Amino acid sequence: MKEKLDREVIAMRAAKELKYGDCVNLGIGIPNLCAHFIPEGVLFQTENGALGYGPLIREDEIENAEQYYVDAGGKFWTPVPGMSIFDIVTSFAMIRSGRLTTILGGLQVSETGDLANWSTGGGALGGTIGGGMDLAVGAKKVIITLEHTTKEGAPKILTKCTYPLTAQKCVNFVITDLAVIEVTGSGLVLKEVAPGWTADEVQALTEPRLILADDLKEIDLE
Amino acid sequence: MKEKLDREVIAMRAAKELKYGDCVNLGIGIPNLCAHFIPEGVLFQTENGALGYGPLIREDEIENAEQYYVDAGGKFWTPVPGMSIFDIVTSFAMIRSGRLTTILGGLQVSETGDLANWSTGGGALGGTIGGGMDLAVGAKKVIITLEHTTKEGAPKILTKCTYPLTAQKCVNFVITDLAVIEVTGSGLVLKEVAPGWTADEVQALTEPRLILADDLKEIDLE
Amino acid sequence: MKNKVFSSFDEAVADISDGASIVTECWGLTGMSQNLIAAVKEKGVKDLTLITHNFIPLVFFGEGEIANLTILLPQLKKLITPVVGLQYLGAGAFVQEYVEKGLEVELTSHGTLASRLYAGAAGLGGIYNPVGVGTILEEGKEKREIDGKEFILEKPIRPDYAFIRAHKADKMGNLIYRGVYRADQPVMAMAARTTIAEVDEVVEIGEIDPEHVVTPSVFVDRIVKVPDDAFGSTKRIKEIIGKMGENELIRSLLFR
Amino acid sequence: MKNKVFSSFDEAVADISDGASIVTECWGLTGMSQNLIAAVKEKGVKDLTLITHNFIPLVFFGEGEIANLTILLPQLKKLITPVVGLQYLGAGAFVQEYVEKGLEVELTSHGTLASRLYAGAAGLGGIYNPVGVGTILEEGKEKREIDGKEFILEKPIRPDYAFIRAHKADKMGNLIYRGVYRADQPVMAMAARTTIAEVDEVVEIGEIDPEHVVTPSVFVDRIVKVPDDAFGSTKRIKEIIGKMGENELIRSLLFR
Questions:
Q1: Which among A158, A218, D72, D164 could disulfide-bond with D197, CB atoms 3.0 to 4.6 Å apart, if both were Cys?
Q2: Which residues of A does the annotation mark as catalytic?
Q3: Residue C221 lies in a domain
């Protein structure tokens, strides 16, 4: 079987969507890994009320962890000059006013950019909602990172999501271990494929029809 | 003609409604005068974002006036320890969450506690709304100070207000140059009359029927 | 000035009765009013409505190490929160037995909860919320198109009590927080009818710069200082963080 | 880091075009972004929608002494505000001639405006507001009873630009204010699509304590330092206040 990109490489490619001066909120999972690849001048935001904070505390630095400085997932971070601390009303105004980019994990993405990422079913108690719905609805750019298929090989990019939705028509970019796809008004545009993969092979693992970008190319990590 | 209370005495009586630990927002006019009579331990609030500030700058102290410290009416005040500065979202949450008492001026008050105090007519541009509507609706206690009648002797306490309303059913106490009246579910209760005035004489200058309080007494300024 | 400083947590929660609603914060260890929570547990009042941004069993910690919000579970009638449990610990499975016995769980999103608390504080009757359209959150709620976009009508939240964990209070009740302890606490204090704060330090009037006050005194009714040996004291939290490295689950969740 | 510091007010407003909406503060002299206002006057763009807490002709001051918001009157298509003029100066009479020529005036209350700006920032579609029921503010609006109380549906405000007058900005755009200059400015910055701040001082990154930041950098797009001789500089405001005592109207209004 052909090699797919690993999680670090997906994260690396997702990080490339960010530019100098952007403010970004990273979800749990692959998005968290983006932190290692994000260009200088990008500020991190966490829902619980901080912007522009420094690197996460590593395993061998626990003694430097401070209770006052954690992200929404409970990870400790380092305070740095220029950051700001604020309450959650301000934090979600930031998130919902289109001032941020967000990179989130996904369970499923639909042809029209619907996102399912909080639950695989099981009703109200089958998953946790948190701030993901706010980010999906409110961010100026929503980038979803996920593996292209389930372990069993079933597509996660679907005509219609089967899992409970996080938000409708919210996704701008999908970055998987096989492809980079832009969600547009006319449908899903395949922009990049993983090295060694063809558009047809990616299409075969994707439920809705993909539109091939004029400049379709191999995933570019430069 | 019998003597009515002057504006200072109305203010003095209104100030008696405040107790230690209360936070109060004073409107323009007679309410402003209350500041001179307010007991210790009462904190002043101004809509533009300060609580617990010190005395207003007097005419002979202009050189101490600071641009950063003015109330919503533009009057300069003195910063004191224990005060707080906040934005208008917080300020109006304070006003609307029932944490404050307000003393406002009035043009007319109705039998059911409706208040008219922003305009005598002339449409949208005939007066200014400001924060008075918010205070009238949101304060835990709304005290209205006004002269009992117009200069021509017509009652200002009416069955129904004829001027444009500030808010409906918002008034708790009315303090005039003739009487102290409490607005209750059963109607207007006459609690106190000015020295030398009888309940009948006050009733004659009031449109709706007044209910006499069991302990009706002379206005008490002790 | 009113005396707002109470000498015990029990005294500070003395008037809370069955059926009360309480909003309090919990983002991991931060901002938790552990001693007020423990006092409510001890008091045993029931049929409570609890509103919180996170309701998570912190299984990493030993008995008596922390007083986590979830200890109140048997006393709850209703829970309003965006997060019940953690996905990798089976999400909301731990509340299932209480749901079967009648616990009502109302899900919301973090941002929606913030807006609903603001709406409570500002006296609003409802807000048309853009978040939740097409999701589980719209069930049973009015949906409406405004200017070509769909919104869900969400109700304000106006709790009876807010439990606040702040850094410093002056004796008037002005509060400052530290770091992300701030989070939802300012809006909780504004929305609640009665606000009770547990704080690291009670300082004299004038020791907090008026420009730096985060929660103005009028929103704070009662203050209790957290003793050094109490839940959530700086000393105890430091000890807990120190021991985090010994727990493999914590290491994998928080440091990798 | 993006360069947000602009060297002139003209440059900072260069992209504002006809039909734009601008929110800016004016509580007497405080918090007015006089130089940005003057730059928009100079630029001559028209059909503007102006949102402000107060729209008052400050007749006390001489020509060229201040750049008051009302100088933009001939350029406005719409004005949203709780205060047009001052009662004892004839209230809104001074805008009457513009109303006759087509200016639309939308009245609101201070608290409602704060909530509507918050609603704009939080992406809400509307809010049910308790203020204005039974008054001129309910005209033409939906009224609805919720839980036994009446509310009016108010629309969010999401202006194209906010003009902010702050005390200090660091080079990233974090802002602090001073005293009541703060007022509505934080929520204006959150609600607007583009925020332009004029400040007393631009300081290095790290000079503003992260806990004291009032408007976080992400909400601020452009910063201009107010020169000593410009409108609203500390020096000029001091001079103006010094002269207030000479004006009998001011003495009677502000000091008695």
A1: D164
A2: 47
A3: yes
C89 Cβ contact list (under 8 Å, min separation 6): C57, C59
Write the residue in C125, C151, C155 that is nearest to D125 by C-beta: C151
Q: What part of B 16-45 touches C (C-beta under 8 Å)? A: 20-21, 23, 41, 43, 45
Contact assessment for residue A78 and residue D175, using Cβ atoms and an 8 Å cutoff: no
Q: How far apart are CA D201 and CA B67, in angstroms?
A: 16
> Any idea what the CATH number is for the domain that residue D178 is in?
3.40.1080.10
Length of chain B: 222
* pLDDT 10s digits, B99-122: 999 999 999 999 999 999 999 988
CATH architecture of the domain B7-218 equals 3-Layer(aba) Sandwich (3.40)
The pLDDT value recorded for residue C1 is 58
Can B182 be counted among the known catalytic residues? Answer: no
Residue whose C-alpha is closest to residue A209's, from A163, A172, A164, A157: A157
- List chain A domain ranges: 7-218
* pLDDT tens digits for range A153-207: 999 999 999 999 999 999 999 999 999 999 999 999 999 999 999 999 999 999 9
Low-confidence spans in chain C with pLDDT less than 50: none
Is residue C55 domain-resident? Answer: yes
Instruction: Give the best residue of C61, C109, C145 to mutate against chain A (max A CB count within 10 A).
Output: C109
Task: Please state the rounded mean pLDDT for residues B150-156.
Answer: 96
Q: Give the confidence band of B220 by pLDDT, cuts at 50, 70, 90.
A: confident
Q: What integer is the mean pLDDT of A58-62?
A: 88
User: Are C23 and C37 a contacting pair, CB within 8 Å?
Assistant: no
Region of B40 (left: φ > 0; alpha: ψ -120 to 50; beta: rest) is beta
Give how far D58 is from chain C: nearest CA, Å.
28
Owner of token pair 């692959």:
A30
Tally of structural domains, chain D: 1
What pLDDT does residue D1 have? Answer: 58
Does the pTM of the predicted model rise above 0.90? yes
Average pLDDT over all residues of chain B: 95
How far apart (Å, rounded) are the C-alpha atoms in residues D135 and C120? 22
Is C1 within the bounds of a domain?
A: no
Between the alpha carbon of residue B183 and those of residues B104, C119, D104, the distances in Å are 15, 28, 38
Q: D60 to chain B: which residues are within 8 Å by CB?
A: none
Alpha helices in chain D (DSSP H): 9-12, 34-43, 96-100, 110-121, 185-191, 234-244, 248-254
CB atoms near residue D204 (< 10 Å): 11
Full domain range(s) for residue D141: 9-255
Q: Are the C-beta atoms of residues C167 and C201 closer than 8 Å to each other?
A: yes
> Which residue, C197, C27, D120, C215, is CA-closest to A50?
C27
CB proximity C190 to B under 8 Å: yes
Restricting to D residues 219-248, those with a Cβ less than 8 Å away from any Cβ of B are 237-238, 241-242, 244-245
Choose, from B3, B8, B40, B47, the residue flagged as catalytic.
B47
